[in-house]
Design the sequence.
C-alpha cells in the first residue's frame, strides 16, 4: 500500500450519553411461566437501560402475569418499548406517567 | 393415542413436513434418536460437529424458505449449536433447534452435561422453550414452527429434558399443521403518501434488503424499480433480488460497494428502503448516509422502523404485500436526467475488478466459476475477503441463489450451509466460495459431505491468511501484521481426500479454466483449490465507522 494509507484509521464511535431524569412506569401483560422475567430483564440489561423498580404478580387464574417497571425515560424509550412488544410472551405494553401510584407505598420496605 | 414425548416430537416434525434433520446424538438426546429410528420419512444427517448441523439446517432453510430442524444433545451439544442459532437470528432465518436436556429433577444440580440452554439462548433466538411436560409438546412444537416462520422469521429453540422425552402422553388428536400467521395489516394512507413521494422525487434510490428475499418479493421490487425508474441497490443479504446485470442495478452498497453506488446514494433525495435495516456495514456513518434523502421504510418488523434512521414514511408490513399495494399507485416515470446521471457516475467510478481475465486471481476465478454455471446454481460463501469479492463480482440473478452469513459474519458458515442447500435442492449445483481461514472452521463436515454424496463444490481461495484481518492491519494498524498469517501451509487436498472427498488443484493445472469446468460439472462433493496472493485487498473499502463517501481504493 502507498504511504498515505498509513494515516488511515478506523472510527470507533463514543458511547452516547443517556440522561434520563423523567420517570415513567411501564405496565406489561405477560404469559406466566418461568423465564419470562429473564427475557424482559435481559432486553433492558443488554442496552444498559436501567430499571429502577420491578413488581410482578400473577393475574386472575395465573395464566398471565402483570409486570410493572419503573424506569428513567431517555430518547431510546420508544425503541425499547417496540423491542419489548416483540417478545413472544409479552401480550401488551402500556406506558404510564412516573407518578402512577403502583410504586407509591413501597418506600417503607426499602428503608 | 398414547406415545412418548420423543415419539410425539418426531410425529409432529413429520406432520410439519420435515424430511431431513441435521444433528449429532448424545446422552440426553437418545430418546429422540430412538424415536427417529422408527421414522420412515425423516432422513437424519449425521454431522461431525453440532455447529455443522446448525448451518446445514440453515442452508436447507435459506433455500426452502421454511423452518428446518437441527438436533443436538445437552451441554456441549447445545453450546456448539449456539453460533449457528445466533447466525440465524441475525439473518432472520427460520430454524428449529431441538436440544436434549438433563432430566427435570437434575436441572440446577450441575449434572453431567448440564448447561442452562434456555438461559443461554434467550438473546439469540426469536423465542425459546424449556419443555416441562410431554403434554406441553402438543402446543410447543407447533408454536415453535409458527413463531419461526411468521412475520420476521427467526430461530426457535426447544430444550427437552430426557425424562420429558420418555414420558408417556395421551391425547385425542394431533394438533393442526401450522402455517405462518397472517402478516400485520398496514395503513394504506401511508402507502399513498409513499407513492406521492416517489412521484415527486427527482433522485430516488431503491434500497433492498434480505426481507425482500424472505417475503418472496424480488419480482415485485424489480417491477417497482422499472415502473418508477428507480436505480436499485441491494444489501449483502438481498443480492439476487434484482439481477446484477439489470440496467437499474447499482449492485451492493456499503463498506465494499462500488464507488458509484455509494456516490449515487450520496446524491439521492429519496431513499425507498424495503426489507433492510440500515446495518452499519451497509450505511457507514449513520449521520452521513444519504444526507439529502427523505426516507420511506417498509419492513415487517416494527422495531426496525426509525431504529437507526428516522423515516418520513414508515410502513410496518410484509414487503410483498406493501409493494403490491404500492405498485398500482406509482405512476410510470422515465426520469431520464437522473438515470443518465447515474449512468455517468457508473462510467466514471465503476467497480474495478483487476485481474478479471486471469483465473488465478480472485475476480478472475469468480468469473471463471460463474462462466461454468447457470442461474440454477446456488452460491454460498464463508466470511472474509472471498465473500466480498463474490458479493461484488458474481452475477447473481435470482432470489435464494446466494447464501451467506451477513449479520453475524460467521467464518465456517459456507461449507455446511452448502451441504444443507444441496440436500434441499438436490438437482442444483452448489458452490461454496471459501477461504483457508474459514474452511478450517468447519472442515470436519467434509466427512458429512462425502457420506451424503452431496453435489457441493468448494472453491477454496487459499492465501494462507486471515485475509480481511491481514488487510485491516495493513490499512489501519500501521502494517503491523499480527496473528493473521498462517506460518505453516495446510495441505487441503490431502485433507479432503482423507475425508473421502475428491480434490482438484488449479495451481499446477496448465489450463485452470478447463480443470475448473470439469470439476464443477462432475457430480458429487469436490474441493477445488486455488492459491491467491495474500496482498490482494478488497477495494473499495470504507474504513469501519467512516462515512460511505470516504472510500479507499
Sequence:
Amino acid at each position: 500500500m502507498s504511504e498515505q494509507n498509513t494515516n488511515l484509521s478506523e472510527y470507533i464511535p463514543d458511547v452516547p450519553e443517556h440522561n434520563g431524569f423523567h420517570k415513567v412506569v411501564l405496565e406489561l401483560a405477560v404469559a406466566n411461566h418461568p423465564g419470562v422475567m429473564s427475557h424482559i430483564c435481559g432486553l433492558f440489561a443488554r442496552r444498559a437501560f436501567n430499571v429502577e423498580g420491578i413488581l410482578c404478580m400473577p393475574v386472575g387464574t395465573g395464566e398471565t402475569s402483570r409486570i410493572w417497571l419503573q424506569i428513567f425515560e431517555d430518547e431510546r424509550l420508544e425503541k425499547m418499548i417496540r423491542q419489548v412488544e416483540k417478545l413472544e410472551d409479552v401480550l401488551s405494553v402500556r406506558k404510564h406517567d412516573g407518578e402512577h401510584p403502583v410504586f407509591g407505598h413501597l418506600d417503607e420496605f426499602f428503608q | 393415542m398414547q406415545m412418548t414425548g420423543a415419539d410425539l416430537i418426531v410425529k409432529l416434525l413429520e406432520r410439519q413436513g420435515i424430511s431431513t434433520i441435521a444433528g449429532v446424538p448424545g446422552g440426553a438426546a437418545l430418546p429422540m434418536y430412538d424415536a427417529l429410528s422408527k421414522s420412515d420419512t425423516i432422513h437424519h444427517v449425521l454431522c461431525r460437529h453440532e455447529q455443522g448441523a446448525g448451518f446445514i439446517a440453515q442452508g436447507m432453510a435459506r433455500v426452502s424458505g421454511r423452518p428446518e430442524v437441527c438436533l443436538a444433545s445437552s451441554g456441549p451439544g447445545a453450546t456448539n449449536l449456539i453460533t449457528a442459532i445466533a447466525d440465524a437470528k441475525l439473518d432472520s432465518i427460520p430454524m428449529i433447534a431441538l436440544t436434549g436436556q438433563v432430566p427435570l429433577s437434575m436441572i440446577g444440580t450441575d449434572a453431567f452435561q448440564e448447561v442452562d440452554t434456555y438461559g443461554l439462548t434467550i438473546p439469540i433466538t426469536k423465542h425459546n422453550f424449556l419443555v416441562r411436560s410431554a403434554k406441553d409438546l402438543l402446543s410447543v412444537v407447533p408454536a415453535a414452527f409458527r413463531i419461526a416462520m411468521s412475520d420476521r422469521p427467526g430461530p426457535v429453540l426447544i430444550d427437552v429434558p430426557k425424562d420429558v422425552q420418555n414420558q408417556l402422553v395421551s391425547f385425542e388428536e394431533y394438533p393442526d399443521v401450522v402455517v405462518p400467521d397472517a402478516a400485520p395489516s398496514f395503513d394504506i394512507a401511508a402507502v399513498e403518501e409513499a407513492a406521492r413521494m416517489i412521484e415527486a422525487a427527482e433522485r430516488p434510490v431503491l434500497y433492498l434488503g434480505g426481507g425482500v428475499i424472505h417475503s418472496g418479493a424480488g419480482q415485485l421490487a424489480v417491477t417497482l424499480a422499472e415502473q418508477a425508474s428507480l436505480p436499485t441497490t441491494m444489501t449483502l443479504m438481498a443480492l439476487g433480488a434484482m439481477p446484477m446485470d439489470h440496467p437499474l442495478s447499482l449492485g451492493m452498497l456499503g463498506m465494499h460497494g462500488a464507488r458509484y453506488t455509494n456516490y449515487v446514494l450520496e446524491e439521492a433525495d429519496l431513499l425507498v428502503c424495503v426489507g433492510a435495516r440500515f446495518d452499519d456495514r451497509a450505511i457507514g456513518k449513520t449521520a452521513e448516509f444519504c444526507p439529502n434523502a427523505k426516507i420511506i421504510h417498509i419492513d415487517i418488523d416494527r422495531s426496525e422502523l426509525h431504529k437507526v434512521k428516522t423515516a418520513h414514511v414508515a410502513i410496518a408490513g410484509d414487503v410483498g404485500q406493501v409493494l403490491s399495494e404500492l405498485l398500482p399507485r406509482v405512476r410510470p416515470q422515465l426520469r431520464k436526467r437522473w438515470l443518465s446521471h447515474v449512468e455517468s457516475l457508473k462510467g466514471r467510478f465503476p467497480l474495478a475488478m483487476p485481474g478479471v481475465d486471469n483465473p488465478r486471481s480472485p475476480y478472475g476465478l469468480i468469473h471463471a466459476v460463474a462462466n461454468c454455471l447457470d442461474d440454477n446454481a446456488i452460491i454460498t460463501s464463508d466470511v472474509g475477503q472471498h465473500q466480498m469479492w463474490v458479493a461484488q463480482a458474481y452475477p447473481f440473478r435470482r432470489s435464494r441463489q446466494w447464501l451467506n452469513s451477513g449479520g453475524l459474519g460467521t467464518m465456517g458458515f459456507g461449507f455446511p450451509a452448502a451441504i444443507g442447500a444441496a440436500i434441499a435442492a438436490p438437482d442444483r449445483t452448489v458452490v461454496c466460495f471459501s477461504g483457508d481461514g474459514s474452511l478450517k472452521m468447519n472442515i470436519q463436515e467434509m466427512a458429512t459431505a462425502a457420506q451424503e454424496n452431496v453435489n457441493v463444490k468448494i472453491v477454496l481461495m487459499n492465501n494462507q491468511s486471515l485475509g480481511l484481518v491481514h488487510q485491516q492491519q495493513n490499512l489501519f494498524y500501521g502494517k503491523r501484521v499480527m496473528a493473521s498469517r498462517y506460518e505453516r501451509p495446510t495441505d487441503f487436498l490431502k485433507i479432503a481426500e482423507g475425508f473421502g472427498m475428491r480434490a482438484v488443484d488449479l495451481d499446477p493445472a496448465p489450463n485452470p479454466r478447463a480443470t475448473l469446468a470439469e470439476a464443477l460439472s462432475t457430480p458429487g462433493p469436490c474441493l477445488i483449490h486455488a492459491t491467491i496472493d495474500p496482498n490482494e485487498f478488497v477495494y473499495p473499502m470504507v474504513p469501519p465507522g467512516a462515512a460511505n463517501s470516504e472510500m479507499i481504493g
